[in-house]
Amino acid sequence: MEDRRPIACLWSDTQALVAVARCWSGEGGTRYLALGCEGSANKLGIGIIAHDALTGTPTVLSNIRHTFVSPPGTGFLPKDTAHHHRSFFVRVAHEALSAADITPSEIDCICYTRGPGMGGPLTSVAIAARTLALLWGKELVGVNHCVGHIEMGRAITGAQDPVVLYVSGGNTQVIAYAEQRYRIFGEALDIAVGNCLDRFARALEISNDPAPGYNIEQLAKKGGGVLVDLPYAVKGMDCSFSGILTRAEELAGQMRAGEKGPDGEVLTPEDLCFSLQETVFAMLVEITERAMAHVGSNQVLIVGGVGCNERLQEMMGAMAAERGGSVYATDERFCIDNGIMIAHAGLLAYETGLRTPLEESTCTQRFRTDEVFVKWRK
Amino acid sequence: MATNNSLPCALTLDIPFPNARLASVALRALQVDKELSSSVTRHFATVSSPGSEQDSVVRVEYKAATNRMLRVAVNSFLDSVALVIEVMQELDVDVLDSQTPSTKG
Predict the structure, then answer these.
(1) Which of A29, A94, A225, A375 is spaced 20 to 30 Å from A242 by Cα?
(2) What cellular-component terms does GO give this entry (chain A) (predicted)?
(3) Domain ranges across chain B
């Protein structure tokens, strides 16, 4: 967006005249640019974002992603995933630069995912990001992956101060912002909800392309004739998924062996997927609602890959509507892991003066959301 | 504190770069991460190649408790080196400058 301000009064100072002239020419309304690199799981994402220097309004200049898909019945292992990220980094970076139509000189900082996530994949992306930063003479900003999701969700949806449900293959947290921290109100005690879904997909040998959760969702849409009884494990503000996964895997085994369900029902993959989704999503709705009651909010923002799921959005929407509120969600460009969210959150931090010195530009598998000092918000 | 005797397996790699700038970039990018195991140590330096005044060679000295650990560490390191080199080859400032501007897709 160009900044063109009319001359409203006489300027006697030469510098002011020059400044006004630059405003007219479009140079005065500058913007900050960041390149962000993400690789904490099986998605390699590189994105370039612009922030208007005056208003802070973000503009997505490019958002390129390549996903490492493992064969049906398998998950993605750290070594193979790191290999994938190394193999595709240059290609994805090229695409991001040409789609944004910018040169390195225009970029203000290089942002990368510091954590949380898988060690090898994280580090492989960090090494490439450091190399870019050194070659281009730019500073680095390490970003918390969860904060990236939250800030991108806020930017895209415009949600004011929602309770955030962050649900993905690696994370399940209920978060609310208070006094410059994203505070975790509830979380999965063992495995993430997305991990539960992904591992169940393996039990049924469902394709991992484009993502196992997506394919479970499509199967679930065709199910619904039978709701199989699965253990519902909400524990106060938290929840647990390993028990329900064990039971679901057991039923999948019984189904493949031609056995009937516990109540004599015929088991189908569609009904198992439907039943699993209904149960785990109901658990998520419950812990989200509990947090909303706690903080007095009626807005929900869903971020993370599982947030793409339309049934989850529907169930959350019904609960929020009952409370007189609404649900905010983004589309797959932003809820699935991506580089633009890292660029956006990193640039927000950069604009407050935060820098990650090269010697400290490491990665960490454990990085709590509330460890980040959210200096860019009041 | 580990003595040299407890890390008897050693390997030194000399990785040549076209100039001192690129050698320095590689060294600085690669030396940040610590080795995961205390049974493996590595030490970085830039040295000059014979007949050159520039310090355009990155020298990495690996020491490990067993040959297996040495092999695993060095193989992993070489993967990272390959990535750094590819990024330099394809995304350095002069490389991008020389490419014809592409139209927006």
Answers:
(1) A225
(2) cytoplasm; EKC/KEOPS complex; nucleus
(3) 4-99
Identify the helix (H) or strand (E) that includes residue A175. Answer: strand A172-178
Q: A6 pLDDT exceeds 60?
A: no
Residues in chain A closer than 8 A to B37 (CB atoms) = none
According to CATH, the topology of domain A159-334 is: Nucleotidyltransferase; domain 5 (3.30.420)
Does any CB of chain A come closer than 8 Å to the CB of residue B26?
Answer: yes
Kindly state the tokens that stand for A21.
């002239």
Neighbours of A279 (CB within 10 A): 20
Note whether A135 contacts B30, CB cutoff 8 Å. Answer: no
Question: Which amino acid is present at B36?
Answer: L
Q: Could you give the CA distance from residue B63 to residue A251 in angstroms, rounded to a whole number?
A: 50
Q: Are A172 and A193 in contact (CB under 8 A)?
A: yes
Q: Please count the other Cβ atoms lying within 10 Å of the Cβ belonging to residue A164.
A: 31
Question: Closest Cα of chain A to B20: distance in Å?
Answer: 13
ipTM of this complex prediction, to 2 decimal places: 0.93
The order of strands in the sheet holding B40-47 is: B9-16, B57-64, B40-47
pLDDT averaged over every residue in chain B: 91
Q: Which long-range contacts (CB under 8 A, 24 or more apart) does A245-253 make?
A: A245/A191, A245/A196, A245/A199, A245/A200, A248/A196, A248/A200, A248/A203, A248/A272, A248/A275, A248/A276, A249/A199, A249/A200, A249/A203, A252/A200, A252/A203, A252/A204, A253/A203
A224-245 pLDDT tens trace: 999 999 999 999 999 999 999 9
* Residue B100 confidence (pLDDT): 52
Q: Does B86 touch chain A (CB under 8 A)?
A: yes
pLDDT of residue A16 exceeding 90: no
Supply the pLDDT for residue B1. Answer: 45
Say yes or no to pLDDT of A300 above 80: yes
Give the DSSP letter of residue A209.
S
DSSP H or E segment with residue A139: strand A139-144
Q: Do A131 and B90 touch (CB under 8 A)?
A: no
Check A93 against B26: CB less than 8 A apart.
no
Q: What residue spans in chain A does CATH classification 3.30.420.40 cover?
A: 13-154+336-371, 159-334
Please state, in angstroms and rounded to a whole number, the distance separating the CA atoms of residues A141 and A156: 22
pTM of the model: 0.92
**CATH fold group of domain B4-99:** TATA-Binding Protein (3.30.310)
Q: Which of A120, A90, A78 is nearest to B82 (CA)?
A: A90
Residues of B in contact with A90 (CB under 8 A): 86-87, 90-91
Determine the CATH number of domain A13-154+336-371.
Answer: 3.30.420.40
